[in-house]
Design goal:
With 448 residues, the protein is an alpha+beta fold. It contains 13 helices and 21 strands. It has 2 domains: 2-80 and 152-218 and 312-382, FAD/NAD(P)-binding domain (3-Layer(bba) Sandwich); 87-149 and 220-310 and 394-447, D-Amino Acid Oxidase, Chain A, domain 2. The structure holds flavin-adenine dinucleotide (FAD).
Length: 448
């Protein structure tokens, strides 16, 4: 267990009181004290306001956001598996949270602004959609958000966590937990026992927390694997991300600083070995051709990763004192930059619900309102992404017509497009206090 500071927290409680029968005078008194200490040592568990299980991006944000409220946090986070070469497009409200948590300053120079998101129909089908470009200027913003490499983002969050007095990091797996009326008792894989008023299960798709809470989930998979790589190109991207829709799924280029971009290339899993076996020069040309040479010649970096595409959504987002955060509650293919943005909204909503319930001690009441409030946002995005992906993969003509018709309408009917952009940014679009600060961040970046 790595503890950032000695125990010193106004929320850190050892709830033991002496009864009147424990009389501290004479020999019997000393005996009582000895028994009391021994009993205490065995019965009192280390107690926290919040236990965050899982040290991925969602769990790391959750730990920092909870600590920012002054709550004591047990961060149960074994080292994440291997280096993550993905990049994540985070929208303005997520960037605003990174800024408040003191992470944005560290990763800003490695991030690229996303000012236009363009969809190009690269299928050879009867019903094809015209190109549609969503420009942030159309909704009065300089950028929708930024594309940030995952590895430095997680490193910056971990660094911040290590500097945060309220957070105790425990680098081991959660083994078991018991949600009682008043607390959640947790047992870790190394035998450590803790108690917390609330648990944030941010332990990914195969969530142990979800299993322990008895929350059921619907799982599905697609005949798709996403190949992830980064590359340099000879022409500038002008902060435009282009999603080429193909019969095998989206092929999405997202800008990085300079003449560099990241790529998420969805393909039939049966093809992936052949693609990876291509000599590098051929693969460079294949990627360039797929993008119709929009960015000129391509030079792919070493180190690819692949992710089988699947989805899940849970029946409930909280139960008792347990809240599900990030991919423990919802997962879908990387289309339209929604996954982690949704996870970050889970974090913000969990913190809001607990604060509104007057703190972690009332986590049970907070869990009820969290469960209700996450429902629409999570299910509408899961449904939207699933539909878009399936209508790409299907050979069913009416579904193809629906997709092409929908994109045509978005391109042609400006109010509809603006509504779609605003809803894509945040559910029930609201003018937030964070937007001016995003503008400030952009100005700072551009003026460098
Ligand atoms: C190719 C690709 C591109 C993407 N691009 C974007 C994008 O542009 N924008 C966007 O918003 N989203 C994107 N996403 C989605 C985003 O990456 C995920 O939403 C996000 O990484 C999920 O983070 P998480 O912390 O919920 O889960 P994870 O990253 O899976 O973290 C879970 C953590 O829990 C730990 N754990 C597991 N079991 C236990 C246990 N018993 N005890 C303790 N810890 C445990 C694991 O070790 C892991 O570290 C993309 C996804 C993919 C696959």
């Amino acid at each position: 267990m790595r503890q950032n500071t000695p125990w010193k927290n106004r929320h850190h409680r050892y709830k033991r009181t002496l009864t009147r029968s424990e009389d501290f005078t004479g020999w019997r008194g000393w005996q009582a004290i000895a028994i009391w200490i021994i009993k205490g040592a065995y019965s009192v568990k280390t107690r926290f306001d919040i236990a965050v299980v899982g040290g991925g991006l969602a769990g790391s944000m959750a730990a920092l956001a909870a600590a920012a409220e002054g709550w004591s946090v047990a961060f149960i986070a074994p080292d994440p598996p291997g280096p993550d070469r993905r990049t994540t497009a985070l929208l303005s409200e997520s960037i605003a949270l990174l800024d408040r948590l003191g992470i944005w300053q560290t990763v800003q120079s490695q991030s690229a602004a996303l000012s236009t998101m363009r969809i190009l129909d690269g299928t050879k089908r009867m019903f094809r959609a015209p190109p549609v470009s969503f420009r942030s200027s159309e909704i009065g913003m300089d950028a929708f958000g930024f594309n940030i490499p995952n590895a430095p983002l997680l490193a910056a969050a971990r660094q911040r966590i290590n500097q945060t007095a309220e957070i105790t990091t425990i680098e081991t797996l959660l083994a078991d937990a018991r949600d009682t009326e008043t607390t959640v008792e947790l047992t870790l894989a190394d035998g450590t026992q803790l108690a917390a008023d609330a648990v944030f299960g941010a332990d990914g798709r195969k969530s142990r927390v979800r299993e322990i809470a008895g929350i059921s989930a619907r799982h599905w998979s697609y005949n798709q694997t996403a190949l992830v790589l980064n590359f340099a190109h000879t022409r500038p991207h002008h902060n435009i991300s282009t999603e080429f829709h193909t019969e095998e799924g989206p092929f999405t280029q997202v800008p990085l600083p300079g003449n560099r971009s990241s790529l998420v290339w969805s393909m039939d899993p049966a093809r992936i070995d052949d693609v990876l076996a291509l000599p590098r020069a051929d693969l460079n040309r294949r990627v360039e051709a797929r993008m119709s040479s929009l960015l000129g010649e391509v030079e792919i970096d070493d180190g690819f990763q692949s992710y089988p595409m699947s989805g899940l959504i849970t029946r409930n987002f909280a139960k008792g004192r347990i809240f599900l955060i990030g991919e423990a509650a919802h997962a879908f293919p990387p289309i339209g930059a929604q996954g982690l943005n949704l996870g970050i909204r889970d974090v913000e909503q969990a913190i809001t619900c607990i604060s509104q319930a007057n703190g972690p001690e009332n986590a049970k009441a907070a869990g009820l309102s969290f469960d209700q409030q996450r429902r629409l946002d999570v299910s509408s995005r899961t449904f939207g992404v699933d539909m878009l992906n399936r209508t790409l993969l299907t050979s069913f003509l009416p579904a193809q017509l629906l997709r092409a018709g929908g994109l045509t309408a978005l391109g042609a009917i400006k109010p509809l497009k603006i509504l779609a952009m605003k809803e894509g940014m945040t559910p029930g679009w609201r003018k937030t206090a964070e937007r001016p600060s995003l503008r400030k961040m952009l100005r700072e970046k551009v003026s460098r």
